[in-house]
Each structure stands twice: as structure tokens, then as C-alpha cells.
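Internal tracking record. Fields below are filled automatically when a chain is submitted to the structure queue. Please do not edit lines marked as system-generated. If the sequence contains nonstandard residues, flag them in the REMARKS field before resubmitting.
Queue: standard
Priority: normal
Entity type: single polypeptide chain
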Amino acid sequence: MTPRFRLSWFLCSVLSLGLDCWAFEEGNPSNRETLWQEFMQQGQRHREQRRLPEAEKDFLAAVNAAQQFASADSKVASSLNGLATTYHEQGRYAEAELTYRKALVIWETVLGPENENIAICLNNLARLYQYKGQFAQAEPLLKRALAIEEKLFGAGNLEQTKSLDYLGDLYAAQGLYPQAETIYRQSLAIREKTLRPDNPQLSISLHSLAKLYFRLGQYMNAETLHRKALLIRRKALPETDPASITILADLALVYREQGRFTEAESLSRQVVFLLEKALGTEHPDLAPALNNLADACQAQRRYSEAESFYRRALALNEKFLGPEHLDTGKIINGLGTLYFEQGNYGKAEPLYRRALSIKEKSLGPNHPSVATTLNNLGQIFLLQHRYVDAEPLFRRALEIREARLGKEHPDVATTLNDYASLLRTTNRKSEAKAMTLRANGILAKNRANKLANQSIHVKTLMNSQKSN
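SYSTEM-GENERATED OUTPUT FOLLOWS
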């Protein structure tokens, strides 16, 4: 038995797959195939259960097992793709990118430049870039995936909808809302043409459009589409269906933004209940649901309850994802905002600083999410009359938002208004006036866009309902 085979046998025994070491021996390709499949299936199960360290071990073992077949076998690429996705979910973005690229090179070598697996890997890599705020790198990968799918399956094929959804998400993340709506509607049209009206896949497009209208402040339209998506899924799937729970959570966010805090809290509690029913009380997927429930309580100024939910969410993320994971940083930021709203700046500042450190480490110094925390810190310093500390934070937040989101994005207006407050306080009134005027222009333009989009949407929705 070679050293490589001995290592694989050791991994097999550690992971308790119950397979004998003879499966690795030369001359047993069918046994090696079975073993590789076991590693891959167990890795996928552990990923779905969010047992990410175990999933990582499984996929590493799968990579090692796949390497027994050939130096550039497609099984190696599949194993690497699974491993890269696990790294991504662990917040290990540099390792994820490197591993996705290794998988891509192998698949391109073995299968040629136009294959379904290559499109899948391109989508995964693009999603990673989007998550890191590297939008320019993500878009050509998604468009290449779409071109591959069109060549393989034909234009308007159902296989293209996932890539279209991802491209729509990318545009929405950049504040390119008209482009996002066009792409989402293209995806919806394909699904409506191909599928029955009660197929759960239709809910994917409806949910994407609902989230877009939520971003635009079109809460009634968002609510309508969320409810339609939820109805389709619940007719076909159990109440613990993960996508249904996600839609329910997003509907709660709509209620919260409408000031319907009691309804938002009720739905958020239902989400927590369903997740606990499906996953148990100690699972990382509970953390964002608890975070949303904390937000609902915070909106009603029930700060003690909100803090307890934030801290439970934080404990889950620190346990399962680690103290430096990006999702942990988001909850820390929310807890900081809780203290900020109570005027407890001494507690809020270190939390914002910790969140900022995590975001910069995970996403780089120029991500829009980094700008959000910079703006939060700037507000604290402004309220504490620490103007010298506040100004560079507002300036940096403004630069990031203009560069990454565009100069007409509503988040730019937020920073302009905060910066203008500082300038007025420090007797720089002409600069403050210019910033306020610019902020008002951005907000007015976005309100006009919301009304225009709403009119288009209502007409389209009415036609869609007539056709159904």
C-alpha cells in the first residue's frame, strides 16, 4: 500500500464511513468509485447540516480519493468544488477562490471550455466575488456561464434561470435596480413558460423580485410577491421547507420596514420556531433568525429582549462559524446599533470597531458593508462631539459608496446627510449646504424611480394574475 493510500485509509477510518481499506487498493476501481461517492455524499450532508469542519474533512478525503483515478480526473474537480463551497461558507474566502480556480482549470482541461460543470463553477466563483464586493470580477463570469448554458441547452432554457437569478442579485447588490428587474423578469418568464403554475421553482423568481421591491421601498408590492411565493411553496412542500422559511423571514422584514412591528415580531418568532423544529436549538442557521427577531424587538424599544436574542445569535455564530466570521461581524454590528440607540456610546463603539475589523479582514477595505460600519462609527463620534475623529470616517464611507455603488445610490445620500451635519456643526455651512442639496437630489430621484417602477410592476402583476 502506497503512502497516499495509507493516508486515505486513515481519513476513511477517522470519518467512520465503515469501509475497509481494501477499497483503495489497485485493481478495485469500482470500490474506489463507491468510496469517493461516500465521501462526496457525506460532505454534502454535513454542509446541509452546517457541520462545516466535518464537511471540510469529507471533501478533502474526496479530493484524495479522486486523485487515485487520474491526475486531471473530473472527480477531482467535483471534490474541489465541494471543498471550495465549504471554505466559502466558513468565511475562508482566499482559500475558496484558489480552490474554485483549481476546479475550473481541471474541468476546462478535461471537458473543454463549454460544459455544464464549468458553468456551475463559474457561478460559484462569481457568487464569491459578489460576496466580497468585487462586482467587476463577478459579472463576466456570470455572463460566461449564461453563454455556455445557452449554447448547450438553447436560449430561454430552464437551465439558465439560476445563472440569471445570480446576475440579477449582482445588479441588485450594486443598486442597479432596473437591470436587476429586467433579469429577474427574464428568469420568471422562462419558468412560467416551462413550468406549471404551482411549481415551487416559480417562487424563486417571485422571491427575487420581492426582495428587489423591498430594496426600492415598494413594500406593498414586496409583500404581494412574498405571499404569492410562499403560497406556491406551502402547497407543495412542508412548513419546514428551508426556502419557505426564508420567504417568511423576508416577509417579516417587510412588515418591520412598514412599521408593522407586532406582525414582524410574530413572523420572526414563527421562523425561529420552525427552524428549531427542523434543526434543533443549537444550529447556526438559527442565528440570522434570532438576529431578525432581535431587530423586531429593538424597533419596539424592548431593548432587554432584543439584547438577549442578539447575544444568543452571537453565541451560535461564534461557536459554529468562529469569532472572526463575517456573519458574526454582522450580529456584532447589530448589537452595537442596539447600544447606539440607547445612547450607550461606550458599549457601541468597541462593537462597531470589532465589526469593522472583521469586515475589513473578510471583505477588504473598500466593501460597501465596510462603509456602513464606518458611517455608524462616524455617527457615534459626531454625537460625542469628536469631530476630528468623525470626519475621516464619513469621508472614507462616502468614497467607498460612490466608488462601489455609484454616485446616485441612496446609501450615498445617507452619508452625505451625516457628513453635512458635521460640517454645519463645525461652521462649514457652504460645504454642508452643497452636500445636503446633493443628498436631497439623490433621494428625490430614487423616489421618482420607485413610483415609476411601481406603476410598471402593478401592471405586470395584474397581467400575470389574469394569465394564471
